[in-house]
Structures are given as C-alpha cells and as structure tokens.
Amino acid sequence: MVASIKFCLLGLLGAVAASTIPGASEIKPTVASALERRSASCTFTGSKGAASAIKSKKSCSTITLKDVAVPAGTTLDLTGLKDGTTVIFEGETTFGYKEWTGPLVSVSGTDITVKGASGAILNGDGSRWWDGKGTNGGKKKPKFFYAHKMINSKIQNLYVKNSPVQVFSINNAKELTLDHVTVNNADGDSKGGHNTDAFDVGSSTGVYITNPSVHNQDDCLAVNSGKNIHFTGATCTGGHGISIGSVGGRSDNTVDTVNIENCSITNSQNGVRVKTVYGATGSVKGVTYKDITLSGISKYGIVVQQDYKNGSPTGNPTNGVPITGLTLSNVKGTVDSSATNVYVLCASGACSGWKWSGVSVKGGKTSSKCKNVPSSAKC
Ligand SMILES: *[C@@H]1O[C@H](CO)[C@@H](O)[C@H](O)[C@H]1NC(C)=O
C-alpha cells in the first residue's frame, strides 16, 4: 500500500493537488495491476494544475482537472495521452487573458474519454476579447478546443461558456463521438462575439455529434471536409445555421456522406446552408438534412451556393466543386418576412442527383436569382 502511494505521488511530479487512490475494493490482487491502477488516477487543480497535468499526463490514466486556472498564453495541452485515458473536468476551468491564437485546450489520443462532471464549466470569459471582429481583425483571439487526431474517442457532457472565437476544431479525427456538448456563447450576442463557430470539422472520418446545444454567433456546424459525419438532435440558436463549407481552397476539399438529422435552428441567419468556393475544386456528395425545423431565420431558410470567394458571395457560381446527392427530407419552418425562403445558385451541371421532399419554408421572399436548380428542388 505504502509503495503504491509513493509511486502515485511520484507520477504526479509536483502536482499541487493530491492524487486519489481508488478504493481498495477496486484494486486487483496482483502487485503490477495494483500499481498501475493506483498510479493512474491523478487530480490537478488551481493555477499550477495545467503545468502539472501537462508534465504528468502520460503517467495518469484518469486525469481530473478540478478548478484549474490555465495561465495566459498556455494551452492546456493534453495531446499524446496514453491509450485509454479518461479526462474529467470538474468545477470551473478558467483561462488567463492574452491576445494569441490558442488553442486554450488541446486533446489527442486513442480510446480517450473526455467528460464534464456534473456542473463543470469551461469558461472562456470571451468578452475580454470580443470586439465584433472575430477572426477578421481586431484583437488576436484564442480558439478554444482542439480535438485533433482523436481516434475511437468520446467527448461527453462538456459545457463551454463564452468562447473568444471558434470553439471545437475537429481535425484528423477517426471515430470520434461528441455527446451532449453545450456551447453557450449567448453573452456574445450583445457583447461583440463573432466567428464563434461551435463545431468545425475537417479531414475526419466517423464523427458523431449527438444532442449538442448551441447558442453562438456563427455556424452551429461547419463541415469543410471529411467523410461519414453525423450531427443529430441539435438545438442551434443565434448563429449562422448548420453548414457545409465553404468547401474548396483548402488542402482537403472532399465532403462525403454527412447526415444531419432531428435538429432545430432558431433565431439564426440561415437554416440549412451549403457553400462552395468560386474557382476552386473539390466535391460535396451525399449530404442529407432530415427532420429539421426552422424559426426566426433572418437571411435564408435554405441556401446552396457555388460562388463564395474570400468569405463572400460573388453571384457568379463555378462548377469545380460539384454538389451531388443533396437530400432534404422534412425540412420545414418559417423565416422573417425580410428573409428569403430558399436560394439555390449552382453552376451549369454542377448540382445533380438531389432529392428534396417535404421541404416547406415560409414567411419570407421567393428568390428570383436562383440558377441551375435541380428538378427535385425548388426556389
Ligand atoms: C431529437 O432531438 C432532441 C433534442 O433536440 C431529443 O431530445 C430527441 O430525443 C431526438 N429525437 C429522436 C427521434 O432522435
């Protein structure tokens, strides 16, 4: 018993918090497994918690971060965790102020579980950075959470409040589930939050974002590339809608098989949105939006456009990123009277194999600018 406690404390390498020892009843009888179990459970806390966790992460198989105050300009770097590690956020995680690009938190590894304990909050206190300019200028703002190279892993029950700018960056992930994640950037509505995308997905295969709750000031979801991406049971409010793209002009420009299902989008600029980049190449195939409800949409209920350049529409679509097999099923709701119900701007021959059924968006204007609309769709 004494030996294993020492092992455990050594493993912490100076963490300020005591490590916790699993109850004796859980410990298996062999010395080796007992040592492994006991060395594995580490708790870090306070202003030195981040540095200690970064130093000791590879010797812990459970990492509890309790009321950690991450210093300014430091990433809570939980990359390269050993296989099977569980990371638990407890209490309030805070971050010092610095103008930099972040990220504030980064996690990578295989068979990783990241979860928020009941009542836990990752508080970005974004108003310190917000200036209404997001990533387009003003202060340099740190991105919040990199979930890069997470393989066969889960992120559960995390509650993120007031991100300075984009929240979850999901990149090079394989079989990653994010369940019951909350992004609450509601304060940004009146205090200058901008480009606070909740989930940006790129170059990933097998991403399952289930039951997220989002209030932000940009895309609820933006898929720039990847395959087999699922986004279900979402409530999205305040932002720019559930988006594919802009696709094109990056190193990876293929979007293949995205299922967006059972989502509600309220008080947002757009509902359903697919954008591709003017003059670029790539492809968008097999995107499905099913059982989607819209209300309080201020720009477009449904918008598909192939004319984006430097983040703005040109009005001139090109065919280098074809959009094939776009299925909309039971997409319904209302937009503001000044908004447009449906807008489709395709280049000749660049949108095909679409299946729209049960699509009903009302309350706004009918667009007169649609081009090359596939037969099952309607503006
Ligand atoms: C749809 O999503 C809501 C959350 O917005 C969830 O409570 C509900 O169980 C989901 N329904 C189905 C059929 O998946």
Could you write a compact summary of the structure shown?
The chain is mainly β and 379 residues long. The protein contains four helices and 28 strands.
- Tell me the name of the CATH homologous superfamily: Single-stranded right-handed beta-helix, Pectin lyase-like
Sketch the major β-sheet. 28 strands, mixed
Number of folding domains? 1
Measured as a percent range, the helix fraction is under 10%
Radius of gyration: 23 Å
Tally the helices: 4
Strand content: over 45%
Sum up the overall morphology in one term: globular
Task: Report how far apart the termini are.
Answer: 72 Å
Mind telling me which CATH architecture this is? 3 Solenoid
Q: What are the low-pLDDT stretches, counting only 5+ consecutive residues below 50? A: 1-35
Any idea of the CATH class? Answer: Mainly Beta
What fold name goes in the CATH topology slot?
Pectate Lyase C-like
**Taking all residues together, what is the mean pLDDT?**
92
**Oligomeric state as shown:** single chain
Hetero compounds: 2-acetamido-2-deoxy-beta-D-glucopyranose
Strand count = 28
| Structural class based on helices, strands and sheet pairing | mainly beta
Report on this structure:
The protein has 379 residues and is mainly β. It has a single domain (37-362), classed as Pectate Lyase C-like (3 Solenoid), CATH 2.160.20.10. Helix content is 8%, strand content 47%. The chain has four helices and 28 strands. It has a 28-stranded mixed β-sheet that branches. Strand 22 and strand 23 form a beta hairpin. Helix 1 runs parallel beside helix 2 (31-39). Residues 1-35 have low confidence and may be disordered. 2-acetamido-2-deoxy-beta-D-glucopyranose is lined by residues 211, 233, 235, 262. 2-acetamido-2-deoxy-beta-D-glucopyranose binds at residues 211, 233, 235, 262. The active site is at residue 240. Belongs to the glycosyl hydrolase 28 family. Keywords: Cell wall biogenesis/degradation, Disulfide bond, Glycosidase, Hydrolase, Repeat, Secreted, Signal. It is found in: Secreted.
